Automatic annotation (TrEMBL):
Keywords, alphabetical: DNA recombination
InterPro entries named among the record's database cross-references: DNA_brk_join_enz, Integrase-like_cat_sf
Organism: Streblomastix strix
A GO MF term: DNA binding
Protein name: Tyr recombinase domain-containing protein
Amino acid sequence: TRSSIRGDRGEELFKWILSKRQFTDDATQQVIDGWHSIWSRHRQRIGEFEEFWTKSGKSWEDLTTVKDPETVISNFIAQQISVHATNANSNACRTAIGMLFRIQGFQEEKINGFALKQIMKKPLAATRKKRKEEPIYKLDILLKHIQERADIKQRLNEQEHLGCTISSIMAFSTLRLAEIHRSSVAKMEDNVWQLNTSIWKGDNYDLTVTFRPLSNPKVCPTTWLNSWFGLRREEDRDKPLWWRPKNKKVSSYEYLSKAVHIIMQASGVKKGNSVTSIRKSSITKSIDQGATIQEINRASRHKDGPSTVAVHYDMNLNDTVRERLTNFE
């Protein structure tokens, strides 16, 4: 398709520019891998720029002699706006093409100058996320439902079982669903479970979250992880964490999201609340129960908390905060 061809051309151009700087193929691939899933968007936007550049009668070699990248980007964005590109597309193009010049060695002030900022005012304003107060449901609603489900685990279908397991993990770790989806686990002594994942939002780093048995086992992640693995056959023990024994395949992100939504709706959480609302409700309950801002930042890995605190003060062992969450009204 035209879209895939455009993306391929964008990736070729990106790799060609790095090769001109003597980057090896391995080094170039590692640069790309650093963007994770976002790279698929970047390559498309670079592909759009490549079309614009070559249709202007210029070659790839001409990119290496550009002295004023701000003008090049401004002309490209202005052309995109003139053909009624969406505001989101204009923002994505500015980001991707700015990055293309950064890898050539240009400094930020040479790329994102006053004129380009003026051009980008309308697209940025149109796509800026509106901040508003959101009604957050009480986490107890969800935890009480999970507690009730624990009494009839044997009668739950696979998707309900999955939804309860993930909801419990999210409530007591404040991990995002994407982070839970790409995680793995290891069972330690004394029914302690370690969940290993990687954080791609903000600072990229690997993370290990340690779950210990809580005073209320029915809502505890250790209970639900034991139960989830109990659904497997012996030959499936080494399969990925979200392996579905019945269908013999790994759960997709979308399947995990649907499973959690089923549990949320069954517990009485109003439709319209996202899976992320579990994370928000968990943080809100911790605040209501008197957790300090330092405890909240460490437990949620919130960006407002200094990264030195997050890294050096054992952010994984938030047992006190988790134990408070098991106390229902």
